[in-house]
Amino acid sequence: MPSFQRAAKGALADTQQRRNLAHATATIRAKRAAVVGEVADWEALRVAGADAKDEALHHLPDYLEQLEANLTARGATVHWARDAAEANQVVIDVARAQGADEVVKVKSMATQEIELNEALEEAGIAAWETDLAELIVQLGQDRPSHILVPAIHRNRAEIREIFRREMGRAGRAAPEDLTDEPARLAEAARLHLREKFLRAKVAVSGANFAVADTGTLVVVESEGNGRMCLTLPQTLVSIVGVEKVLPTFADLGTMMQLLPRSSTGERMNPYTSTWTGVTPGDGPQEVHVVLLDNGRSRVLADEVGREALRCIRCSACLNVCPVYERAGGHAYGSVYPGPIGAVLNPLLRGVSSDVDKSLPYASSLCGACFEACPVRIDIPSLLVHLRTQVVDEASGRSAEAAGMRAASWVFGDHRRLEAAQRAASLGGRLLGGRTIRSVPGLGAWTQARDVPTPPTETFRQWWARSHRNDGHTGEDA
Amino acid sequence: MSAREAILARLREATADVTTPVGARGEVPTISAAPASAAGTLDLFVDNVADYRATVVRCAPDRVGAEVAAALARGRAHAVLVPDGLEATWVEPSQAAGMWLRRDAGEDGSPLSPGALDEIDAVVTAARVGIATTGTIVLDHTEDQGRRALTLVPDQHVCVIRADQVVHDVPEAVALLDPARPLTWISGPSATSDIELDRVEGVHGPRVLDVVVVG
Question: Nearest CB to B174: which of A253, A282, A293?
């Protein structure tokens, strides 16, 4: 995976994607602002949301044991998975035990993170994504680019094309006269997926919340595809990251106000399902829950970084981020894009790869993400914290460290500074108005930036020239 | 070491610095909007349900059956599913109007299969709680609402809720609900905004939602 800066360069040249993203993020920002404005004490809700998650995270082993006990008491089978391979194996084993060669899926970030679909395919089991956007991504053999609206980079004409070309290969074909009207496209998805829902034996979901004191799992959605998966098949497997735990059922009173308003900009999403183990005669009679670590214990061990685990995947931070809006989701090299991805990915995986090293720099630190976050994750501070780790990893031999040493030498003496400024302004006069695309020795820094053209004279020179006759030297100004 | 023990050990090590005891934060704070009046709460509920493009009508208790029949007629429903515990008078006018009332039981008495549910046009249910600030109805799938699939597969859902079941904000609703029951929170008909963020009603769940508020 290339660094963010290299990957973003390609995305920046894709004008169609930039147009789609600008439209989508602007729309959703306006909707969110309107419904957040309706809440009298939004800040108190944010604090309560952060407190609920912190309580769970600070005592995670205790709450997980409580969750497990309550789930088991209600007839669910609880599995623990250290990593992706262990979690995927549970799903494969459950599907095989049911003799199923296909599963229907509710959109879930955790299953994307562990690449469940690929693992199932290798085991000869088809995984059908049922969320409309995920269906668009899956049929288009594409990658999601947004947590909430994974096909945000596709417009209606592209979606029609994908449906016409691909639906027939996966099941019921798209209608011959399909137009690019969103209502017609949604209708095509309804018809295509209904036969899969009605015959499915096994469903796979994630969970937005897992309530420790009751053993209740919660899935928040819009289309009803989640309800189909959670209700019709006889067997349900839910992959739940360990950080999804909430201490008490009462905490849902806070979270169900924060999440819909922050994510889709609605007072409430169309459908929320909660279930507690097995309900005789209603829904799946075999219920499995996989509690997934996959790097989360590593994040939790970072006393500063652990607040990233409060994330409820609302994607508000993506929609307000000027970097995300221009670069798109793919450049982040993970299923978690945007500001939260820029902190979560290096925390989950460490800062050894090119992309994870570069992500803490995929930000201008403008702070909009912190302001939008419903659980008060201080993303800018976490980015700075991670930059320190990246620099430490390079043990002082990094370009930035060398640059800082050089800068301190120059700034340490006014004669050196004046000489450097004169040299720069000479460069400015030579260049005229042209833009500098790269500077030898500053390759990494200038990959995704243009260096400002140096001014043709320094501030000190300008002051001396323009104040020559007014009697002030500037020293006592 | 099992995965369970390994993960719990890692998590204990990761939180070794935490000194506060479990539950030290105390009671979960209830942060909710204050209702101006009961009438105001009900008006807000009706406005917000309608805002999500559900059809809302308010009526007196003796008019429920007529309003349910009118909603089903608007949806051109013929086969109508009726949960076992539903108040019988709510669907009598519909039957009199020639609609075919169905129970959740096939010929052999077992619950209807997903395929059989797919043949049904509409379902009529009660509700457990309504939330005014969000325009949400919550089902807890007891006898007057039926199991979850009943309100999912048919294309129209007519939901009857009493005015005294409507609370003002989300935390009050959560406090009234039984976590042991499966719960379905419904805010308007099934919808998606996945295509250029244009809201489209009706993807997989019922495409038509009618809410009858009694009292």
Answer: A253
